[in-house]
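Re: export button greyed out
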Amino acid sequence: MKPEILLGDEAVALGAIHAGLSAAYSYPGTPASEILEYLIRAAAGTRAFVASWSVNEKVAYEEALGVSFAGKRALVSMKHVGLNVAADPFMNSALTGANGGLVVVPADDPGMHSSQNEQDSRFYADFAKIPCFEPSNHQEAYEMTRRAFDVSEELGIPVMVRLVTRLSHSRSTVRPGEPRRQNPLRHGAGQDWTLLPVNARRRFRAVLDSQAAMVRLSEESEFNSLSLNAKDRSLGILASGIAFNYVQENLPSLKISPSLLKVCTYPVPEKLVRRLVDHVETVLVVEEGYPLIERSLRGLFGIAGKTVRGKLSGDLSLTGELSPETVRPALGLEPLPTLGLGGFELAARPPQLCVGCPHADTFLALKKALADHDKGNVFSDIGCYTLGAYPPYQAVQTCVCMGASIGMAKGGAEAGIHPSIAVIGDSTFGHSGLTPLLEAAASDTNMTLFILDNSTVAMTGGQPSFASGERLLRMIEGLGVAKEHIRKIEPLPKNLDKNVRIIREEISHRGLSVIVAVRECLEEAKKRRRSG
Amino acid sequence: MKQDIILAGVGGQGIISIAYVIASAALEEGLDVKQAEVHGMSQRGGAVQSHLRLSQGRIWSDLIPQGEADLVLSVEPLEALRYLDYLRPDGMVIASRAPFVNIKNYPDLETVLTKIREIPRHLIIDSEKLAKEAGSSRTQNMVLLGAAAGRLMVKEESLIRFIKALFERHGENIVSANLKAFALGQAVAAAADFVPMSGGSGEKGSR
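Workaround output, generated via the alternate export path:
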């Protein structure tokens, strides 16, 4: 087939289609969103497979698991922290096993370009004791996704493909192979799927027993490679995933070629690692994320007679993203000469709300209403409105995880904070806001919840929201919030005074209020006008 | 032969479009291509950049190593300066002189332009004026692409073909405005090209 230029995310998506994908689910999140976006575009018109946004990652995972139980191939993708949301079905699916191939693709964000943390999803694969592929380039992202489906069916277990921002959001050439057909519907062994203790114990034993097969697959994988320098045994480099590229980029600058092991499959190929370690005096481990391989290599007491270097030894940074230049010092190389700024102070240009954004009007009204209160807290959430933490608004004070604002506002109120305010977007509310609001309504907590309904998932590019418009209002009421304390405002400059008055009324109400600020996202309105 | 290019600007200025055109042309000409870009939170009105790497041989890293960029191509003057750590000492900067002011502490424009003029190989383009002349102020990115076109390792015809492909679905007028913007950029760069003189809408340095 013809070569194409694809994002790393898209290479995964195309690999899944060519592996005979029947259904894919996800919740939008940078840097993973483009996987499902590609699948939705590819499925449009053909309807050859299902590609659908889910209300959250946990539901997405469960939908994919249901497809797998039916014998068909399913993909579930999410940003790294989305796997936290899906961790319950994820961990347990290792025990139920997969019937049709089940591939989970978390996209990590080392350097935290668009995230709250830089957790490393390889640890989740290790925790669940499932195989993991870590592509170093686009072609591998395509091929490994295909392989992951095969391995999933061969071992009867979910398989992870771990991406990182720099691969997800980089474009390069992919040469696709011949597509495979979808699986027929196939009913499986239902007993394995009922994780009552008696079954779960048996299933966990089976997972443990299959570890040797996983290591063997890893050792035989063509995605790993070892080259030993027979003449010089001083240094060996173990590099995984895209970290391998940063090492390769710098190799021409080295006078003596080190021995080099590329690891892109987990559990790690033990024999290959053994051969490298036996051959050299010092092993430098270069991996993107937390030091997973380095830690297991080093153990508690190190390897007698060998030096292990990497992030734990301080040769590479434990935080942030790797790059060609951050790897240089660990290789004993000086920085390359650059033009540089010569001390010129460069003004930063942080991300900000669009000019005329409805959130800005809500924040102005909220700030004004709160001017008389100096002891309150505004707990916020994940979305464009998190940018309200920056000047000139400085209107919100927390960003923790999806839906956290409501639970935290309830906790704050119960600890004595007043006013205790929560600010959440419509899609984030649908994702994880319903259950905490159910609780707050049941105890009529003295707090005020703002739901900013811009009718889209704006930050990630305008995916559809499940909890918007009339449906949102009915949901709030259905959860038990008193009707007279569900207030709708339209965040526009001309409504400022009216909105401030409504907010003040609800803050002074001793009990739960929900203020729904309804105005469409500007970017989405623009897009809609353009497409007619 | 290889070429490493940093594309710079502010979210919404069409950096990704420039990257698409060059990368597609490179693929067609059988070159290896890697192009890293920024999505999500970091692109909302903030500084955006794309690392574009072209090579006849294999490209390893998706990111250009600091000190290896041959060219910084920026649709905004302040943003041109943000990536000088990536530029080789003999590298070139092609930048628009039209500031995008969405921050309070935007420096004095003359100071920014002076800083760009200190770069031995630079070309400052009045992309705003040329884009308007082309028929749409939104074509500044194509003015810049045109200004760089003669220095890229892909053919100018290939670039033109993919400009057409990119804007086709927006209709004839948009296509022709973008092609005109590209041509105006080409003309300014050609007039300034390695000749120690300034004039027209472009100014260059050759210290």
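The longest strand of chain A covers residues 73-79. The button fix ships in the next patch.
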